[in-house]
Each structure stands twice: as structure tokens, then as C-alpha cells.
Amino acid sequence: MSEADPLDIQATFDAQLATALAWRTSTAQQRLRRIRRLRDAMMAQREAFYAAFAQDYRKPPAEVEASEFLPVMDEIRHALGRLKRWMKPRTVWPTTTMLGTRASVQYQPRGRVLIVAPWNYPLSLCFGPLVSALAAGNTAIIKPSEMTPAVSALMGRIIASVFPANEVALFEGSQPTSRVLLELPFDHIFFTGSPAVGKLVMAAAARHLASVTLELGGKSPSIVDASANLKLAAETLMWGKFLNNGQTCVAPDHVYVHASVKDAFVDACRAVLQQRYGAGPAAQKASADLARVVNRRHTQRLASLLADAQQRGARLLAGGEVDEDQCYIAPTLLDRIPAGAAILSEEIFGPLLPIIGYTELDQVIAAINAAPKPLALYVWSTDRRAVGKVLEQTSSGGACVNHCVAHFAHGNLPFGGVNNSGMGSAHGEYGFKAFSHERAVLRASPLMLIKLFFPPYTGRRTGLMRTIVDALRLPML
Ligand SMILES: NC(=O)c1ccc[n+]([C@@H]2O[C@H](COP(=O)([O-])OP(=O)(O)OC[C@H]3O[C@@H](n4cnc5c(N)ncnc54)[C@H](O)[C@@H]3O)[C@@H](O)[C@H]2O)c1
Fold this sequence. Notes:
With 477 residues, this protein is of the alpha/beta class. The chain folds into two domains: 6-216 and 425-437, 3-Layer(aba) Sandwich (Aldehyde Dehydrogenase, Chain A, domain 1), CATH 3.40.605.10; 221-416, 3-Layer(aba) Sandwich (Aldehyde Dehydrogenase, Chain A, domain 2). The protein is 45% helix and 17% strand. The chain has 16 helices and 18 strands. The strands form four sheets. A seven-stranded mixed β-sheet has the order 10-13-14-9-8-15-16, sandwiched between helices. Strands 5-4-3-6-7-17 form a six-stranded mixed β-sheet, sandwiched between helices. Helix 2 packs across helix 6 (149-162). It is globular. Nicotinamide-adenine-dinucleotide binds next to helix 7 and helix 8.
């Protein structure tokens, strides 16, 4: 992979300053025009995207539609319909001591923003945040992943055809290019990727006190309890796990299943896999509906997680076939994984699903709370009290009940992690706000109460202040 020229990056960043200042006063119409041009150029390359995704990791066209175009188009549609409302300054009521003033929150573009994206949903995770950045009135520089070169190159051509570099630019490259970009004093950095690199990005941002949105990963747990609809659980979980061949930040990483329904759940999962991808190993390998692992290095990483678990005594319940040359790993279900196996501590990010039997929900909750806070948590149950208990006693970026992954596509929900799985939110209005500065504006009047707080501090004035402060003990109406 060739790296972007640092001088070119610096010149582009410098050139975006004047645009960013001019765009502070941009109207909703001007911003939407940019977004529409991006949409039209992207959709004009639909077939080219199919080919690029096939080349990079044999992603099926249906999954390109459902997990790349759909989220971006939904983001665009949302912005087209709502941007005017989002941009409107929000008037707020005066609090007691602010009587006599008027106040509002003004949404300002942050300025020049950097978007760094991972490889697993390269289009959705570059253009989705870009739509939010443009909606909020920012210029942007995008650094896609080096691991999906065909898609990255195509996105680069689209960006160059729609925007002059002083508005939006895309630089291909790997870590060296990323590092050059992270040296620059961007106003905001929107990073999607691993927690390990997220820490480096946050440290780099700290040098300029750039604000950050960190969309990270981790091990998202799932729970199937004894009351669950097992057919629904198997159908949804097998979809969320094997979509994009398990290479999804919010994929169920592992699943806790109540011991009383574990065998029936495994049978239901096997049936779903056979119905969707073929009855035997050869048919599944030939299935056009399974993407490949992104490259050989990641195939080897997953193969060693599998081998390590098996050597320690894990039992294979489905799949297990590995073909490194074709970056293929079959949809795999495992159980009886002993503590200490790497598959139980590393983010799997591939088509391997550990199934862990349990008898006490409290123990599952304790195990979840003992690990870093995950990006997502899923529970399949028809017992409302059990669902309430899981949602109340755990923390995660997002959660689904009787489903998985789908909350990503809900434009009215904030999408993001918590601590180790990230900070800040994306999508819809939350994405617009991530790329906006919420500026507090207070307008004074000659009759405002706070004038009573000015010196000279006579005895009467001090007494009045005491009365006002004491009055704050009264409950709010
Ligand atoms: N929360 C989300 O929305 C979300 C979405 C997709 C993926 N992810 C997470 O992303 C990870 C997988 O993606 P990945 O392997 O591309 O992540 P990654 O962190 O290795 O890379 C992400 C981006 O950072 C760049 N990068 C890598 N190392 C760097 C370094 N040392 N300095 C500067 N830049 C560097 C890469 O070139 C790439 O563009 C998983 O952890 C997954 O859970 C999160």
C-alpha cells in the first residue's frame, strides 16, 4: 500500500481552513446540496461497488445493499428531512436566577474534521459519518482502511469527483498516513476502529485538545434464557453473527445459553445455518452468501483462536473448516471452552461463536460486569423481569431484546460505545451533534435578576443574596 504524501496532506488541511470559516454561515440548503451530490455519485457507482467488494473480500451484493448502501442512504434521507430542524437554535427556559435573560443553544460546525475508518464496513463507516459531518457544516478529510483497497480507491474517486480538496478529501494509506493526519490540529476526530488504536487517536487528539468521537469494538455478549423463543433467537443470532462473515463491530461475540435449552438452541442454530448456507461443509464453502475473512493474516488469527480452544478441549458443534488460501472459515459453533482460552478474552471478529451454558442469570451478569463495557449486549427472553434485570444491571453501548445488530440501523437511536467500546454517538441527530459545537448563548436585559449580585456588597444586598440562595432549597415547580 502506498502512503499519501505528507506535503499534500498538509496543503489540503491548510486549504480547508478558509472553507471551514466560510461554511460557518452555510445554510441547510447549501449543506443538503453537497449531501445530494455525494449520494448521486455514490449510487451511480453501485455496480462498481459490487465489484470492489467482491474483489476485497467477496462480500455478497445483497450484503453490500443491506449493510453498506442502506445505512448511508438512510443517514442521507434522515438529514434531508430533518436538517433544518436540527440546525435551528434551541431556546431554553431561564432557570430561577436567570430570570430576565433569554437563552438558546446554537449549533455551530466544529470546523475541519478527520474521519478515520476501519475495513469491515468500509463504505458505510466512511460515508455515513461524512454525511453527518457535511450536515453539520464541516470540511472533512477521510482516511479509509488499507485492508479494502478496491473499495477505498473507488471511494477516493467518488470524493474527488464531487468535492474540491479544500472541501472534502480522501487519503488512502495505512498507519504512516494515519499518523501524519493525527499530527494536525483538527477541530474534531471521528475514529472508528479497535480500542487499542482508539487510545492512540485519543492521545494524539489530546495534543491539540481536539474533541473526539470514538466508535470502538470489544466482545458483545448475548444471553438466551430458558423462556426464549429459540427459533427466533437462532434466526436472528445466526444473521447477526454471520453477516459480513462475523466481521461486525456489534456482532454477538459469544452467547450464554440457559443449560435447560442449550441443546435445543444448538439444533435450531444448525438448522438455520444449513437452510441459509447449505447442508454440508462443501455446500457452505461454495455458498455465494458468505463473505470471506478480509485477508490471510486475519484468517490465521481466527484459525489460531479456534485451534487454541480445541486444543484446550472445546467441542465443535458446527463448522470448523479452515482454508487459509481462500480466507475461508466455515460458520462455526463451539462449546465447552475452558477458561483461559484466548477466544474468551480477545474480540473474535469472525465466524466463530462460543456457546456457554449457564444456570444462574446472576453469574452471567457478574461475568459481563467483570469484563470491559461492551459495544452491544443482546438478550433473548420472554420473561420481562429477566430482561429488565439484564438491562438495569449491566452497561453497554447499545442493546437489543430478542434481536441483535439491528439497533445500528435505527436512525433515531444514538449509536456508540461506552468507555472501552467508545465515546460519543453517531447517526441521525446524534451524528449531527457529534460534528457540531453546542454553543450556549445568553441574551441579557436591563431587568435581569442577576443584577442584584453586582457590588457594592451592602448588608442589604448580601441579605438578598442569602434569601435567593435559600430559596433554591425549594423544590422546582
Ligand atoms: N463501533 C463501531 O462503529 C465499529 C465499527 C466497525 C469496526 N469497529 C471496530 O474496529 C475494529 C476492526 O477494524 P480495524 O481492524 O480496521 O481497526 P483498526 O483500529 O486496526 O484500524 C482502524 C483505522 O485506524 C488506522 N490505524 C491502524 N493502526 C493505527 C495506528 N497505530 N495509528 C494510527 N492509525 C492506525 C487504520 O489504518 C484504519 O484506518 C474492531 O475492534 C471493531 O469492533 C467498531
